[in-house]
Design goal:
By secondary structure, the chain is mainly alpha-helical. It has four helices and two strands; from the N terminus they run βααααβ. It has a two-stranded parallel sheet.
Length: 113
């Protein structure tokens, strides 16, 4: 039962906490999984209103926000989109707390995936 807390599905992690505890390695695996989904951000970018709605529930939407920010680094953004990008980056930075010890993490990412 030592690793039981690391096996809790993301959707069941307490919504009360205001940040996600994760290791750099786990974030790297999460990023690889998100970016290998076969879809790139192309013809759409969230408005500031969309971004505010997404960040109102970071725990539920952080993976989607990572996808928005990372899936197409070649996309040219207009002035408003740059502001949205900065807003999302700041919210994500404040939401994620990187920890050194996997035992302190909320996520469990098997090495085989």
């Amino acid at each position: 039962m030592e690793n039981a807390k690391n096996q809790i599905p993301i959707s069941e992690i307490s919504q009360v906490e205001d940040h996600l505890r994760i290791t750099n390695e786990e974030f790297g695996c999460l990023l690889d999984r998100i970016l290998s989904n076969g879809y790139r951000l192309e013809d759409w970018y969230p408005t500031m209103e969309n971004a505010e709605e997404l960040t109102a529930n970071m725990r539920e939407n952080y993976q989607f926000i990572v996808w928005i920010l990372e899936s197409n680094d070649e996309m040219e953004l207009n002035e408003e989109q740059v502001k949205v990008e900065q807003f999302l980056q700041e919210k994500l930075k404040n939401f994620i707390t990187f920890v050194k010890n996997p035992e302190d993490s909320e996520l469990f990412v098997p090495e085989n995936e």
